[in-house]
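Supplementary Methods, section 5.1.

A reviewer requested that the exact input to the structure prediction be made available. We therefore reproduce it here, unchanged from the version used in the analyses.
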Amino acid sequence: MKSRYAYEPAAYDAMDAVDQYLDRCGLDPLLLHLVRLRASQLNGCAYCIDMHWKDLRAAGETEQKLYGLDAWRESPYYSDRERAALAWTEAVTRIEGHVPDGVFDEVRAHFSNQELSNLTLAISQINAWNRLSIASRLVPGKYQPATLEVAK
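The structure derived from this sequence is encoded token-by-token as follows.
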């Protein structure tokens, strides 16, 4: 598929500025990529699924954990914090009115106010990237991940 149009470079610069902020916000890079991958799955963005899957693998995430992501509720590979973030990701991505109280209570038990603000921004950002990528018909497959600095 060929891209329908190229976006204004200044628009991409603005999006990149938000990503740069998120890279420095203090949230675990693996968690950020995990929620980005999950939102991309929900939105059907093949380009972003390819990108974040590769980024997670480059950072050392296991294939098993990634294969189980579509069924994270039934899979034993996720921490309570990751589960809260994934529930929040789904609620924010599929927003219909308000986020359910139970999901809010769950995420609040694992994230500070600042972390929750940054997590919500990251989810909003990937949803915007998904829409830009789908609208411009970006083709998956050619993305090569950068090396992520992950604290062990």
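The mean pLDDT is 91. These observations are discussed further in the main text.
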